[in-house]
């Protein structure tokens, strides 16, 4: 082909031809969570690699924050930089833009901790073999339900690794939060998964009434949801999605609902458009045959989004399920079965380790 002929080819046509012949490469965060639980960790490793291999796809603010990491030691016996978690948090500059890993020694830390909305990029890290315990006896009567947590996090890019939270355990209201190998021990209103995109992996949450509640857009993977026996009616989740076009909802994948009694409902209609999904999960005899509650609000039957997909166990039998819940098809569940649901490819990193410089 001569140069003269090339000069008559529109640039737009050349560009479109190139697009047609180039392969379409999807973000790895679009890879579906495997049905085989044995493949779960390899799936996670493929999708959530270290910072060095993903700088071009992560949020720029996160990339910059992870390039300058500070490690602070908290030890109850006074051998660290601080004796309390509260003092360690106070040491972080206002509007912080760099990752601060607060390495917490073993023991009980009886304090009510708040990380405000200006203190970003905080990681709380404990020893997996001797997990520190954050505990406080705050009650809803004293502080109100939303402010009674042992730990309240309002900032973005928070992470917790190998920690145990006790009592009215915590509230997470910041965006881009991750929890690895954490335990949440409480009774009613254990975990306020309030708002923002959140990821929970290898965690444990226990309680009785509404013990996971809020409007978070959250993905729970390989986690145990434990029903404390004794109540005549147990409500595991209460999601507060208020409009049909909101993207939020709780998704539980390869999780285990444990306990006994047959009194637990997977969720209730707290807000009219609440969204909760269980997929590839083990549902024990703790789950009531009906599975879901409309909270005596029949008008929400056509608006809530309560779904199940390929669950197993004695509590997963669909034959007596509430009519407003759905056994989801492959196409219906697909948007919720990848890290893309929480935009994980932009912000999620493997659990940090506190390497002291």
TrEMBL record:
Pathway: Glycan metabolism; pectin degradation; 2-dehydro-3-deoxy-D-gluconate from pectin: step 1/5
Record: active site: 210
GO molecular function: pectinesterase activity
Location within or outside the cell: Secreted
EC number: 3.1.1.11
GO cellular component: extracellular region
Name this protein carries in UniProt: Pectinesterase
Taxonomic classification: Eukaryota, Viridiplantae, Streptophyta, Embryophyta, Tracheophyta
């Amino acid at each position: 082909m001569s140069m003269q002929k090339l000069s008559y080819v529109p640039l737009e046509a050349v560009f479109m031809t190139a697009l047609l012949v180039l392969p379409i490469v999807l973000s790895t965060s679009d890879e579906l969570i495997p049905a085989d639980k044995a493949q779960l960790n390899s799936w996670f490793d493929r999708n959530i690699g270290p910072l060095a291999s993903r700088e071009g796809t992560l949020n720029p603010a996160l990339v910059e924050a992870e390039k300058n990491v500070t490690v602070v030691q908290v030890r109850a016996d006074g051998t660290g930089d601080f004796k309390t978690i509260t003092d360690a948090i106070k040491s972080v500059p206002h509007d912080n833009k760099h990752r601060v890993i607060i390495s917490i020694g073993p023991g009980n830390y009886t304090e009510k901790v708040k990380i405000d909305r200006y203190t970003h990029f905080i990681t709380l890290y404990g020893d997996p073999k001797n997990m520190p315990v954050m505990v406080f006896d705050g009650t809803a009567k004293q502080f109100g339900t939303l402010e009674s947590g042992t730990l309240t996090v309002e900032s973005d890019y928070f992470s917790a690794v190998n920690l145990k939270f006790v009592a009215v355990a915590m509230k997470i209201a910041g965006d881009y939060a991750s929890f690895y190998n954490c335990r949440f021990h409480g009774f009613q209103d254990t975990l306020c998964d309030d708002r923002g995109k959140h990821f929970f992996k290898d965690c444990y949450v226990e309680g009785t009434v509404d013990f996971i509640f809020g409007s978070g857009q959250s993905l729970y993977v390989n986690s145990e949801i434990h029903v404390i026996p004794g109540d005549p009616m147990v409500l595991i989740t209460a999601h507060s999605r208020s409009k049909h076009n909101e993207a939020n909802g709780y998704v539980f994948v390869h999780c285990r609902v444990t306990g006994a009694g047959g009194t637990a409902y997977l969720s209730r209609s707290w807000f009219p458009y609440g969204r909760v999904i269980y997929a590839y999960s083990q549902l024990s005899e703790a789950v009531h045959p009906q599975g879901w509650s409309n909270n005596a609000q029949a008008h929400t039957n056509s608006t809530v989004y309560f779904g199940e997909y390929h669950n197993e166990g004695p509590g997963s039998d669909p034959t007596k399920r509430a009519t407003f819940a759905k056994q989801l098809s492959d196409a219906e569940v697909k948007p919720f079965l990848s890290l893309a649901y929480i935009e994980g490819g932009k912000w999620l990193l493997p659990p940090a380790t506190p390497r002291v410089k």
